[in-house]
Write a structure and sequence with these properties.
This is DUF1214 domain-containing protein. By secondary structure, the chain is an alpha+beta fold. The chain is built from five helices and 17 strands. Helix 1 runs antiparallel to helix 2, helix 1 packs parallel to helix 3 and helix 2 packs across helix 3.
C-alpha cells in the first residue's frame, strides 16, 4: 500500500505519546493524543509543501498544529530552499511589533538544534515608504546590492516570524517567495513513486517532530529547580535579537506563583504558559499568555503576573487551566541592547489567600467578572482576525 509507511509511523507515534515519561494522569494522555493529531496534520503539510525549486511559505505551527512551546503572539512561516539557488522574497511590512528572518541548515532533531546561518529583523533591510520590500537570498556575489543575503552551505529553510504585541490594533503584513532561477517554469508532474516518497517522508517528519520536542525540555528546562526562572539569556536557535527567561512550575490548587518583571523598553515582551507536552496552553479562550501591551503595568514600572488555578480577580492572572505542572517563558524581541539579571523576573510562590498582602498594588489590579469576560472576548476576536488577515 502506498500509505503504509505513514500508517506504520502513526502507530509508532502513538507509542511515543503513550510512553512519554511525564504522563501522570488521563488528562495528560488525552492532551498527548490531541498533540498527535496536530502533528499528523503538520507532517503531511510539510511533506507536501517540500518544494525547494518552486517554494512557497506555509504555516506548519498554529493553534491546531502546535509544537516547541509555540508563542501565542507569533505567526510562523517557513519555506524550503537550497544553496546555489536565488530566491526573491517580497511583501509589505504590517504594523506588528517585530518581523524577523532566519536561515536554517537542517531541521530540529532529537539530538540537536539546527544551526542558524543567518538571523536578522526588518531593521536590517530597506523598506519603501509604502511598506513594501524585496529581499534576495542566494549565492555569494561580488556586488550584491542592498537587501541581498548570502545562503551559506547547507541552507535548507527560510523561517519568517511576525510577532504581535497588541493583538487588537496591530495588523499583519504580507510575505511571498519565488525562486528566481525557476520563475515561469513548473515542477515535474506527480508520480506514484513521488507520492510514495512523500508518504514516507511524512512519517519520518512525524516521529522526529514528536521525539525532538519531548527531548527539548530536558535540554533547556528540567535541569532547573522547579518554580524558578532563569535570568534573561539569548534564545537557543540563533534569534539574535531575542532573549528569553525560562522555567518549569509545579503548583498545588492553593498555591500561586507571582512573576515580577520590569516593563522592558523592547518593542516586544511576552509571557506564556506551556503544558508538559511543551505546547502553549489554550491562548484563545483563556488568558494563558500576556504581552506587555496587554498586561497591567504597576505604577513602579513592573508587571506582576499571577499564575494560579483559582481566579484571583486580577488583570494579570495567567490561567493554569487544570495544569498543575508545566512551563513558563518570557521572551523579549527586537532588542537594541543586551539584557542582564536586572531585566529579568523575580519568582515567588505564595498561598492563594496571601495575594492581597504580597502584591503591592493589589486593589488597583482588580477586575470584575464582566471585565474579565470582555478580555477573553477580545482575545477570541483578535485571533480570529489575524488568522484570516
Amino acid at each position: 500500500m502506498l500509505t503504509q509507511p505513514f500508517a506504520d509511523a502513526i502507530v509508532e507515534a502513538e507509542k511515543v505519546i503513550a510512553e512519554a515519561p511525564h504522563i501522570r494522569t488521563e488528562q495528560d494522555l488525552v492532551e498527548g493524543y490531541d498533540y498527535l493529531a496536530g502533528s499528523i496534520r503538520a507532517s503531511l503539510q510539510m511533506a507536501w509543501a517540500y518544494e525547494r525549486d518552486y517554494p512557497f511559505f506555509t504555516q506548519s505551527t498554529g493553534p491546531y498544529t502546535k509544537m516547541g512551546l509555540d508563542n501565542p503572539d507569533t505567526l510562523y512561516f517557513n519555506a524550503n530552499i537550497r544553496e546555489g539557488r536565488e530566491y526573491v522574497v517580497t511583501g509589505t511590512r504590517g504594523s506588528t511589533a517585530d518581523v524577523s528572518f532566519q536561515v536554517l541548515n537542517g531541521d530540529y532533531s532529537p539530538v540537536e538544534v539546527p544551526d542558524s546561518l543567518a538571523a536578522f529583523d526588518d531593521r536590517e533591510i530597506e523598506i519603501a515608504g509604502d511598506g513594501t520590500f524585496e529581499l534576495r537570498f542566494g549565492p555569494a556575489k561580488p556586488d550584491p546590492g542592498p537587501n541581498y543575503f548570502v545562503l551559506g552551505p547547507g541552507s535548507s529553510m527560510l523561517v519568517v516570524r511576525e510577532v504581535y504585541s497588541d493583538w487588537a490594533t496591530e495588523r499583519r503584513g504580507t510575505i511571498q517567495i519565488q525562486c528566481a532561477d525557476t520563475a515561469g517554469g513548473a515542477p515535474a508532474p506527480l508520480t506514484r513513486d513521488g507520492l510514495a516518497k512523500r508518504y514516507g517522508v511524512s512519517g519520518k517528519i512525524l516521529l522526529s517532530r514528536l521525539r525532538t520536542f519531548l527531548a527539548f525540555p530536558k535540554w533547556f528546562y528540567l535541569n532547573l529547580p522547579v518554580n524558578t526562572m532563569t535570568e534573561p539569556r539569548p534564545t537557543p536557535g540563533g534569534l539574535t535579537t531575542q532573549y528569553s527567561s525560562a522555567g518549569h512550575y509545579e503548583l498545588g490548587d492553593e498555591e500561586v506563583m507571582i512573576v515580577t518583571v520590569p516593563r522592558s523598553d523592547a518593542p516586544y515582551q511576552g509571557i506564556q504558559l506551556g503544558s508538559v507536552w511543551y505546547l502553549s496552553l489554550d491562548y484563545i479562550n483563556h488568558q494563558t499568555s500576556l504581552t506587555a501591551d496587554q498586561a497591567r503595568v504597576d505604577p513602579d514600572g513592573k508587571i506582576r503576573f499571577v499564575i494560579s488555578e483559582r481566579d484571583p480577580g486580577l488583570a494579570n492572572w495567567l490561567e493554569r487551566t487544570g495544569h498543575d505542572r508545566g512551563y513558563v517563558q518570557i521572551r523579549w524581541q527586537r532588542l537594541s541592547r543586551a539584557l542582564d539579571v536586572a531585566d529579568g523576573p523575580e519568582v515567588e510562590v505564595v498561598k492563594f489567600g496571601e495575594l492581597a498582602d504580597r502584591l503591592p498594588f493589589h486593589d488597583e489590579a482588580r477586575v470584575t467578572p464582566q471585565e474579565w469576560a470582555a478580555r477573553i472576548s477580545a482575545r477570541q476576536a483578535a485571533v480570529a482576525g489575524r488568522m484570516l488577515g
